[in-house]
Amino acid sequence: MAGDPVSWLMIEPGWTVSDAAGEKVGKVKEVLADTQTDIFHGVLVERGLLGDEIEILADGIAEIHEGHLRLV
User: Fold this and answer.
1) Is 27 exposed, middle or buried (0-12, 13-18, 19+ CB in 10 A)?
2) Residue-wise pLDDT tens for the chain (72 aa)?
3) Which of 2, 17, 35, 51 lies most in the core, judged by the most C-beta atoms within 10 Å?
4) Is the dihedral of CA 1, 7, 44, 12 positive or negative?
5) Which phi and psi (to 5°) does residue 70 adopt?
6) Cα 20 to Cα 50: distance, rounded to the nearest angstrom
7) Can you give the pLDDT at residue 20?
8) Judging by beta carbons within 10 Å of its beta carbon (0-12, 13-18, 19+), is residue 64 exposed, middle or buried?
9) How many whole angstroms separate alpha carbon 20 and alpha carbon 10?
10) pTM for the predicted model, two decimal places
11) How far apart are CA 12 and CA 27, in angstroms?
12) How many Cβ atoms from other residues are within 10 Å of residue 14's Cβ?
């Protein structure tokens, strides 16, 4: 990933999500957070052509860069 890490507050639907080895897992569908209390729970990731969804908890995310998340 290029560039400096960014805050979870910048995550948007459509960002690419990859596993620890760099293989694409899917794309962010929704950010799971409470912005009023500044608590980040994780993301809902849409993967595959069938639109399967998986929930990735915050502690499963290793890095956040603009446009991309890398998992642990």
Assistant:
1) middle
2) 667 999 999 999 999 999 999 999 999 999 999 989 999 999 999 998 787 999 999 999 999 999 999 999
3) 17
4) negative
5) -115, 130
6) 23
7) 96
8) buried
9) 21
10) 0.90
11) 10
12) 10
* Residue type at 58 in one-letter notation: A
CA distance 52 to 55: 10
Task: Give the side-chain half-sphere CA count within 13 A for 71.
Answer: 22
> Cα separation of 31 and 47, whole Å?
15
Q: Is the dihedral of CA 13, 68, 64, 60 positive or negative?
A: positive
The partner residues of 46 in beta bridges, in order of sequence, read 27, 53
